[in-house]
Write a structure and sequence with these properties.
The chain is α+β, with helices and mostly antiparallel strands. 23% of the residues lie in helices and 35% in strands. A hairpin with a 2-residue loop joins strand 2 and strand 3.
Length: 453
């Protein structure tokens, strides 16, 4: 992809210096008002988004946002306030408002900053800053080229939901009264297209997109459009399958949702509220013995790489699942205290999960499965995190003799997540790079598929 990278006039460090200075001054004001602890988050974000459809420009939007959030603690009483106005009187009012809220809240034994000794000291960057000096006209040209390439693939592609290009950058500073000050800068870029094949009741929609921290890592716009068209055409003339129990392969782009359900179930908020089917599951066997998930926060150009979490706690490489056994939970300081545990450096979420593969690519997995369902799209929100019950609408392809036989839609797949985790038979090498959950396709040995009665 032909890109122009902004580097000569990069003022990001100066802007970070300004955010850091504001954060330090706000902490001083919190102390002056009697706060026993305080923390400040400050950020600036810029972005450009263009949308086109059927060869015409629909929207062009340039954004520039900023925000300051102040949290104070008077003992274990907490108050928070925020503003986007950096004038001194507005900053003063924000601190005063946070303090007033804290003085009217009840004590919470779990409230407070993360423990001082957990603060990060090695504040590295991980090659996540790649501004794209793209003008709106060039962005429009790329989006149009993406859509046109897709519409030209097959005469059955007669309509479009449009193509888009987005580019953004974010600067953030987190500081607290332990003396911690962390600075981060990141960029993200995307190109995507959604196309419609067929006519009337026979229409099928599908798409494709590319997402990366650096523009040079994006797929070519024309290749994205062609892939979107191929996916839409491949779904024409779908059939249903008889209701029954079958092996199911989740394609990589939807397989990460299974890992996302695991993360939700082992996150501190769900656990201390007893709203998870995995309460008291640390140390138990949830997956087959070969299965493993590692958290890798220090990956170069990792989508969620960071030296510290949202509370300044040092991140670390650590297994989440090893030999099929859940090794730990995903905790910030508040949820950790509620559970009588320590923060795992996951305030704000996980940092680059890597699911170990034990199989080949998707084609090899389908050949190994022989007969069953390949899921490429999931619909609905039919997942109960309290019980683990899973029931979602799905579309994809029926597999016979290890190869795609015909497209399928209008079906429901169902099971229980605990049972599904234990029934995983294979993870592929076909990792989808567009997510911080890095997994290939996942084969679940048996699920209920509700199709034709």
């Amino acid at each position: 992809m032909n890109t122009t990278i902004a580097s000569v006039n990069d003022d990001s460090q100066a802007r970070l210096d300004r955010l850091a200075d504001i954060a330090q001054r706000l902490l001083d004001r919190c102390r002056a008002r009697g706060a026993s602890q305080a923390e400040v988050s400050s950020s600036e974000e810029t972005g450009l988004t263009v949308n086109v459809r059927m060869g015409e420009v629909e929207t062009v939007e340039a954004t520039r946002d900023r925000g300051i959030a102040v949290t104070v603690y008077f003992g274990q009483c907490k108050g928070s306030a925020s503003t986007a106005d950096l004038r001194e009187d507005s900053l003063d009012a924000t601190v005063e408002q946070a303090c007033a809220i804290a003085r009217h809240t009840e004590d919470d034994a779990a409230a407070g900053l993360a423990d001082r000794e957990l603060m990060a000291t090695d504040l590295r960057e991980f090659d996540g800053w790649h501004p794209w000096a793209i003008e709106a006209d060039h962005a429009i040209d790329l989006a149009l080229a993406c859509e046109t390439a897709g519409r030209d693939v097959d005469r059955r592609v007669e309509n479009s939901d449009g193509a888009s290009l987005g580019s953004g950058s974010s600067l953030s500073v987190y500081a607290n009264s332990h003396g911690f000050l962390g600075r981060e800068r990141s960029t993200s870029h995307s190109i995507g297209c959604a196309l419609i094949a067929g006519r009337g009741d026979a229409m099928q929609r599908d798409g494709w997109y590319s997402y990366a921290l650096a523009a040079e890592d994006l797929e070519a716009a024309t290749a994205i459009g062609r892939r979107a068209a191929e996916r839409a055409v491949s779904r024409l003339a779908p059939r249903q399958v008889p209701t029954g129990e079958y092996p199911v392969v989740f394609a990589a782009e939807v397989a990460r949702s299974l890992i996302g359900h695991l993360i939700g179930a082992v996150s501190g908020g769900a656990l201390y509220r007893k709203a998870s089917f995995l309460v008291d599951s640390a140390g138990t066997q949830l997956f087959p013995e070969w299965f493993a998930i590692d958290e890798l926060p220090f990956l170069r150009r990792g989508l969620r790489s960071s030296a510290f979490d949202a509370e300044g706690v040092a991140t670390r490489e650590a297994p989440l699942v090893s030999a099929g056994v859940l090794q730990r939970y995903v905790l910030g300081s508040y949820s950790a205290r509620k559970l009588g545990l320590r923060s795992t450096g996951n305030a704000g979420g996980v940092h680059n999960l890597q699911v170990a593969a034990n199989a080949g690519d998707l084609d090899a997995m389908l050949r190994g499965m022989g007969r069953g369902l390949l899921v490429t799209e999931l619909m609905g929100q039919g997942v109960n995190t309290v019980t683990g019950d899973y029931s979602r609408g799905a579309a994809g392809f029926w597999i016979e003799d290890g190869a795609i036989a015909f497209p399928v839609d209008g079906i429901t797949i169902a099971g229980n997540l605990r049972g599904m985790f234990g029934a995983i038979e294979a993870v592929g090498t076909d990792i989808d790079p567009r997510s911080h959950i890095r997994t290939g396709s996942i084969l679940v040995g048996r699920m209920t598929v509700a199709g034709e009665s």
